[in-house]
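Bumping with the actual sequence this time:
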Amino acid sequence: MFSQQRTTEHRDGDDLLTAGLGLEGLRAMLPPAFADADHPTPAELRRRALWSNWRGIADLAPGGGYGEVYGSVASVPGREFSAFAQVPGATQPHRVLLQVPDAFDAKKRCIVVAASSGSRGIHGAIAVAGAWGLPKGCAVAYTDKGAGTDYFDLDAGQGITADGTAAATDAKLAFKPGATSGTGVAYKHAHSQDNPEADWGRHVKQAAQFALESLDEALPAQAPFTFGNTRVIAVGISNGGGAVLRAAEDGDDWLDAVVAGEPNVLVGGHGARNLFDYSSDAALLMPCALPQLGIPAMPGLEAKCAALAVRGVLAGDTFEARQQDALAKLRAGGWTDAALRAGSISVAFDLWRAVGVGYASAYGRYPHDAHPCGYRYSAMNPDLSVRAAATMAERAAWVADASGIPPGAGVGIIDPQAPADMGLTGLQCLRALWTADSADARRVRKGIEEARAGLPRKGLPVVVIHGTDDGLVPQAFSSAPYVAMAKSAGRDVRYWQVRNVQHFDAFLGFPQYGAFYLPLLPYVYNALDRVDAHLDGNGSLPADAVISTIPRAGKPLAGDNLAMPR
């Protein structure tokens, strides 16, 4: 099950939680530098990956409350055990990692297992699971759930090895596409041809199994570590939240509790919509709808809305009428105005198209050179022009700098249409993969169906937390239907709905977002505290709650803003 196993020590100016950077180092605007940009060391790559993933998930800005009102960046010395793991039938491995603090609590014997959010790399849940578990003396296990930042450069014939360094195809790589010819960039989530989302629950379980094996090695005097004598709590947010809910389905009684924040999870009925469905819809309609909610129109929007009217996507003879039609269509599809306002973040960052392009390949199991809408990925200049190939320095840094789904880290989406098309042909093609009856559409929908979630195990405590303003994974499409399904079947699921919370804590450092929105992570940590105390016999599980928070309005975050349930 496991290969390419490595063990590293992290002490004396290095540590498990921040690689020695501490809060001030994580807040630095520039990433930790490499001594040799073309050949960074594994330790340098790890430090930079921790910097990137902390900043991509948590609000670390002064006044945001991290490390003061909630959360920890304490220095935690210890060891890391890492490996490649593989689920039966998959062609590509996923990464697993266990962090064992020197102060592991031998009396409690606890493992926190987490899956990375989004498509992030192996350290993608460090701010979620590591920040809570490591200071408490728990070992923390991670999986990149078959996604991650192990990009493959087709021009150079190079991928990423177990220690994070770039190497040619004859090495043992974390991801190598089935065909390595061509130009541009391939990445695992989109191009593994495994549809990793269908196996997210198995990825989480394998990470926990790796944790037990590694603890036997790390702490032989306390061995054996088994699911019977070791507490295992699974936690994740976004895609990671969906992954731990999939792990909750396993009937083998290995999990003790699950905490899922803003989970991307697909069920049937109860108003549920899958990510590919509503993201492809949002990519077309949301830009035109947002001005009706008081959000300034993006440059060129009038021409884009007019072109959509010509194509029959929107109705109306004026810019105003087309905006109104776009908004009406989104509302009819289940979007709330609060989710639409927060969805403007995804519009601004071109995230709806990024999701549609990458997930179409993943669900349809397409290789890198056969996207059903003709898209591909390539190195790009800052002005978004295509470049012939990535530089050695760019390739070397991808594992640390990338988010796991382009655009970003110098890799962009290449649209086969001319710029005058405004991207609309491609977006309509993506939408048709959900709505049409073509062979490609059936292929993509089959992959989506493979990712459908089932019920959690009977008797397993599950806490689901979701912001009511989430504009990337709206609760109406994901957590609310999941909770309704689970409760109707008599499962023990508790549900916190948090007002004035959207999807991206990391964006709260921008004053316009931080003034109105609050972070999700404090509620995830608090739910973990409550679950842990319950398992100790020292408290009850959280009750269902709609949490009425108080926005900061430009002031530093205080406990009263969070209105944490008691």
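The tokens above came from a reply further down the thread. The mean pLDDT is 96.
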